[in-house]
Design a protein that fits this description.
Elements lengths: L1 H14 L2 H10 L3 E5 L3 E5 L4 E6 L5 E6 L2
Antiparallel strand pairs: 1-2, 2-3, 3-4
Helix pairs in contact: 1-2
């Protein structure tokens, strides 16, 4: 699972764009749990992931939160 998350995180950070990052997570079995202007929390049955975006909607950081 950790290897899959690392690959997912790497792909998302390379992509940067908020819409494309969302697509990457959704295609890998995650759904949007919460969102606001700068953050999106994605979740699947085991994991919650926080993606923080800048004002230009580019991913700045990704971390496991639950």
């Amino acid at each position: 699972m950790e290897r899959k998350l690392n690959t997912l995180f790497y792909s998302a950070m390379e992509t940067k764009n908020r819409t494309k990052v969302t697509n990457i997570f959704v295609q890998n079995g995650f759904k949007i749990a919460r969102t606001d202007f700068d953050d999106v929390v994605f979740e699947n049955k085991d994991t919650q992931v926080l993606v923080e975006f800048d004002r230009q909607s580019n991913a700045q950081s990704i971390s496991v939160v639950g």
